[in-house]
Amino acid sequence: MDFTLPEEVLALRDTIRRFVERELDPISEQVEEEDRIPDGVAAKMADMGLFGLAIPEEYGGQGLPVVAQCVANEELSRTNACFRTRIGTNNGIGSMAILIGGSEELKRKYLPEMAAGRLIGSFALTEPNAGSDASRLQTTAELKGDKYVINGVKHFITNGDIAGVHTVMAITDKSKGPKGISAFAVEKGFPGVSVGTIEKKMGLRGSHTVELVFEDCEVPRENLLGREGEGFKIAMKVLDKGRLTMAACALGAIEKLIALSTEQAKTRVTFGEPIAKRQAIQWMLVDMAISAYAIRHATYHAAWKLDRGERVTKEAAMVKVFATEAANKAADSAVQIHGGMGYMKGTAVERYYRDLRLMRIYEGTSEILRMIIAREMIA
Ligand code: COS
Questions:
Q1: Is this model's pTM higher than 0.85 or not?
Q2: Residues carrying CATH 1.10.540.10, the chain
Q3: pLDDT (tens digit per residue) in 220-236
Q4: Considering only CA atoms, which residue is closest to atom 42 of ligand 1?
Q5: Which fold, 233-378?
């Protein structure tokens, strides 16, 4: 077995690491305060091609394998989570349904713009009464002439306020359950689309989570993604990859927490010596390192399987549960090692503590993912 990453992937890793250290991390607290990524920084991310990592070359992206996308996510997670969230929707949940189910014309219309970072995507599945039980959604899409008319409300939509195109799941045939759900590419300018409430969240500042309202929203028939009734399966495939790359994000966060906590432990002196000398502190650091090692191998193995075209529903769920729960534990230890300072606003560990909490919820709660794993095991 060869675990070596290809040269070009290592080069990508180094480039992103430098960018994070020089350009993103120094403004992470400013972004936190202002709750927005400065336009100039988003433009730099676009210039580096970060919005098109997953989009195939023929549509203007870099078409990187999932393994390389995980490397990028890992590196981008060594700073404020809003940066990788902005990039992540275009590389994953915001573009993938168009890639899977869009006509050639739709792909040519949207994907190059998304790869260039000029068009942001969003993924609109969740509704006030359909989150974990995703197929219970209530938004409807009725074909009238050459247009679908969408009615309903989506909520908790990442980047929904800045997205130019939303992937929207809606019911086209209520009698068919999940097989009556279809997916659509809905432009923000289509008649009847509006942004509702912008949520106030515990963390992930700099990235907005919003409500999208569809009132007799007219969508051209050709913006149907896949065939009628294929929307739920498309959404599930999108989420499989999203969950896998999220494990890579959790890994990057744990690595950053290890670095911050090790530095703190080596420099903070109590009773005449650094706290790193204490076994209680060492074991917290060690447990973080053990989890990072295990997550790295499991996540990259699952990514390798996905690159080989295998279905990774179970593996993606496993690595997301394992990595995000370990990341929450690591953040808790990091705050503990930093003591009172770790509880103060303006410290990175305090921000990680809040931001990482969401990872056990979005793109599948730990509980739903355990249910998916159990189903696959006893199927
Ligand atoms: N890949 C491909 N197809 C999939 C799939 C996947 N990962 N998961 C389900 N499907 C298919 C099933 O095979 C089934 O098709 P067939 O009958 O042809 O076999 C169809 O989709 C319906 O699946 P299922 O019967 O499992 O539907 P359920 O309503 O029971 O789905 C789960 C249950 C838990 C899988 C689903 O509701 C889910 O993932 N919920 C979490 C949603 C989520 O993550 N939300 C977060 C917000 S989005 S950012």
A1: yes
A2: 7-115
A3: 999 999 999 999 999 99
A4: 132
A5: Butyryl-CoA Dehydrogenase, subunit A; domain 3 (1.20.140)
